[in-house]
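Hey, I'm writing a tutorial for new members on how sequence and structure tokens pair up, and I'd like a real worked example in the thread rather than a made-up one. If someone can provide the structure for the chain below, I'll link this post from the tutorial.
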Amino acid sequence: MADITIYHNSNCGTSRNTLALIRNAGIEPRVIEYLQAPPSRETLVALIAQMGISVREAMRHKEKLYETLGLDNPALGDDALIEAMLAHPVLINRPIVVTTLGTRLCRPSEAVLAILPLPQRAAFAKEDGEQVIDAKGARVDGR
């Protein structure tokens, strides 16, 4: 069985679609509901580094709290942004998926396909009806 972890928010459609794509490959991942069980500082910093993105890119800018806390201030450094995410896990962008092939912020959800070690096994459509995988397990857009 492939060792996969998803930092998941069940209230997020993108996160639900990503989890469904992992399961469509026949994999049952370790699901971390990060709002209830936030990562440690060390884990969060490591995930951001593994994804190869900036701390600011790892934040949810659409959360009202982002603006309320003044996190859009470009003068704030990485440490301040990380502390905000640790204090308010809702500010951590999601879903984050960790596999043996890499770690990725899966926005859009089909970004997970690049790091899954197994192919898709069946057709898959997102919750909004957008077809992503055809009946043969291939991407509909041909990628």
